[in-house]
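Example 3.2
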Amino acid sequence: MGARSRGIVRVLSGSLGNGLEVGYWRPDGRLDGLVTGYHRYSIAADAVLPHRDVFFPSWAVLRIQPRGADWTVTIGTTSHPVVERAVIFGPTSKAVYSTSGAGMTIGVGLSPSGWRRFAAIAADEAADRLIPAERALPNIARLVAALDDLDAWDGEAIVRLFDAFLLERLGTPHPDEARIAAIHRELATVPEGGIEEMAERLGMSVRTLHRLTRSAFGFGPKLLLRRARFLRSLMLLIAADERRGSVEIEPSYYDYPHFLRDSRLFLGMAPGRFRRLPKPLMEASIRLRAAVLGAPAQALFDPAAPASVSPAPRRYAWVASTSEPITARNKAAPASKRNTGAA
């Protein structure tokens, strides 16, 4: 098993009050390239409720919550009450807007290669949707039952159970897995040119490229290229906000109105309005994902950078009123399951 970096961010103070927590952990090294990371979001009963936050457009994510959750998410113009204990957030082309009560959710991010290896359905069947996890990951009930047997959903226990569940189902690579990984590496670099040039570099026809991206990534290659370019520019914009500096968006954008059109497509609004939204867990996640998992957003995960190669285990705390991460103790604190709901 490769070395694993652990991280946790606590929003200790700020305009939305106390009681918000997000943690990320790396998977077993044998899951490199298949799993983008494990996470836990928690909202205490004394937090300001209902809690509103945002998930960036992403690859597929398995999320599990305690019973009695009070959680609704909106993808595009469609609202989805999260009623299943274990649910798949399919690959998304739009930001996911979340409204929830107090509680917790834990989850597993799957790369396109991971989806093709573990999932029983094609990714486009879950794209921009929430589906019961059992439909894509048979026998998920066994993992939920094992989690219910825990006294607390602390980081070490979550990692142990998620690793065991996935390694048991690792099997052999899907016949298309090498080509899927090659496509993913192309997207991670935001290549120049269009679909034809991308297919030529990959040594496949445009038709094959479309088939593979829809089955493993959830969308066609043109949309995936636009999403990757937009998210990279958005991260530059957010980083510039924090240091109060200027920023240049991706050079492949012709002009700012071009970027603005993509913002309305992927976020449903202009970037200025998005930046003003209250989204404390998302903002904390950007820092922690980059420190622990190597990318500030799951859709920017680079499969060529092994998740198991990391510095010594560490834990982060972050105070909402500052922009500096501060090192804290190594071992993550236990997380009680008594609260219900999700972040």
